[in-house]
Specification:
This protein has ten helices and seven strands. The protein has a seven-stranded parallel beta sheet, with helices on both faces. Helix 1 packs across helix 9 and helix 5 runs parallel beside helix 6. The mean pLDDT is 93.
């Protein structure tokens, strides 16, 4: 009878010492990811646009609870000069860059009947151009250091399934998904860079929080379409998986929505 081997390798400390840049890392979804990765030993550089008070509060919380310290960088990734500066922080310059997570974006809440060319251009800049160009900066940094890293971009469930009144936001986010697939193919292979996308559903944080508090999405829970609203921790755990150095996933979109896009027409 053949002998079976169950010597599986599960590396619980996979992110220890890994330098991870998180754009939007102090916001509603990003803060949970910054906390989880720091707790697991990653060296986190968290970027934020302008809310320094919130950023400092998160840093203090992580230091007090986990005994870890994250670095903070202030600036708007829509600014090309800042993108280059962002990926060249002293810590990254010294240690290289192992991962980029880009939460940055804008909900673009303007009715399509009222939208202007300027509104659409701004949404395209915030939700497609800026994240894509930041990914290019990060990839260049990884390649220069000969690091086989990981890039995680953020789309939305509205780019996975058609939702009414979402075109201003969903259009650029859909384009970002296709761009990520192309980059995964272009930068992949042995020693290459993995690129994946997370498409969150309705979460009690970030852009969707105001809509949840208004009762806009209560229907989905009341009718049993989803078991609950999403939490920032749901997203953070998926990000951690995709950043693990030996991860076997690339060029994929992971929809974290409790099944809402599958069941939303019920009820």
């Amino acid at each position: 009878m053949a002998e079976h081997s169950f010597n599986f390798e599960f590396n619980d400390g996979a992110l220890a010492g890994q330098m991870i840049l998180i754009a939007g890392g102090t916001g509603g979804l990003g803060s949970a990811t910054s906390a989880l990765l720091a707790r697991d030993g990653a060296r986190v550089v968290a970027g934020y646009r302008s809310n320094r008070e919130r950023a400092e509060s998160l840093r203090s919380h992580i230091e007090e609870r986990y005994g870890k310290r994250i670095e903070l960088v202030e600036g708007d990734i829509a600014n090309p000069a800042f993108r280059a500066e962002y990926t060249a922080s002293p810590a990254i310059a010294e240690n290289g860059l192992h991962g980029l997570v880009c939460f940055a974006g804008d909900p673009a809440r303007v009715k399509f009947d009222d939208v202007t060319d300027a509104d659409l251009h701004q949404s395209l800049q915030e939700n497609y151009v800026a994240p894509l160009m930041l990914a290019r900066e990060a990839a260049a940094r990884m390649k220069a250091s000969k690091i086989s890293g990981s890039i995680v971009l953020f789309s939305t469930m509205q780019a996975v399934a058609p939702f009414e009144s979402s075109i201003n936001y969903a259009g650029p986010k859909t384009a970002l998904i296709q761009a990520a697939r192309i980059l995964a193919k272009q930068w992949g292979g042995p020693g290459g860079i993995r690129v994946n996308v997370i498409a969150p559903g309705v979460n009690k944080a970030g852009m969707a929080l105001a809509s949840i508090e208004s009762g806009k999405y209560d229907f989905y829970v009341e009718q049993g379409i989803i078991p609950r609203f999403g939490r920032p921790e749901d997203i953070a755990r998926v990000v951690r998986l995709l950043l693990e150095p030996d991860n076997y996933i690339t060029g994929q979109v992971i929809t974290v929505d409790g099944g809402l896009t599958l069941r939303r027409d019920r009820g």
